[in-house]
Design brief:
single chain, about 180 residues, alpha+beta, SH3 type barrels, four-stranded antiparallel β-sheet, three-stranded antiparallel β-sheet, about 25% strand, elongated
């Protein structure tokens, strides 16, 4: 007899012994006493009471009467159109190349003196924040707001800046850089 057939017979024998024991657990002799006792205990407990839902009190309705009032998103006063002068319109020249001193704000520039050549224009000596001294004459540009030098004298440099007016336009603003000792 081969080992394969011996194993097959042994397997069959084990199955034959296990099945009757397994089936004995499924047999019913009608004795559900423990189960019936547990059910009786559960039924004997006092029944719970479900609370009724809370009573609904309707909220008093209020009519909206603020539609006649000012919107919170509009200005608090009536805005009237500002009369923009119809004279000379100011606008910076965006096409011209920027000069060196236009990198700095006018507040950061300091006038340190002036110099003039014989029979030549007067130059102001302006120090930038890096400490370098630059010569500036009338017509040069300086400052971040398109400032054009309109006057140079021994004690000050007058610059005319072009700044936004807050209404999609531009206005001129004069500024002066005074000599610092």
């Amino acid at each position: 007899m081969s080992s394969f057939s011996k194993r097959k017979i042994a397997k069959g024998f084990v199955v034959a012994l296990v099945i009757p024991f397994a089936m004995s657990g499924c047999s019913s002799n009608g004795d559900f006493a423990d189960l019936q006792a547990k059910m009786a205990e559960i039924k004997a407990r006092p029944r719970g009471r479900i609370e009724p839902p809370p009573e609904f009190n309707p909220i008093a309705s209020v009519s909206y009467a603020a539609h006649q009032m000012r919107s919170p998103f509009s200005p608090p006063v009536d805005v009237q159109d500002v009369d923009i002068p119809s004279g000379r319109q100011v606008e910076p020249d965006f096409t011209r190349p920027k000069e060196y001193l236009e990198r700095f704000t006018l507040d950061s520039l300091k006038m340190k003196g002036s110099i003039a050549k014989e029979k030549g224009p007067l130059f102001a000596l302006v120090q930038d924040p890096a400490g370098a001294t630059n010569r500036v004459k009338t017509g040069d540009y300086m400052g971040k707001n398109f400032g054009r030098v309109i006057d140079v004298n021994e004690s000050a440099v007058t610059v005319m800046e072009i700044v936004p007016d807050g209404q999609d336009g531009w206005v001129e603003r004069p500024r002066t850089i005074r000599l610092t000792e």
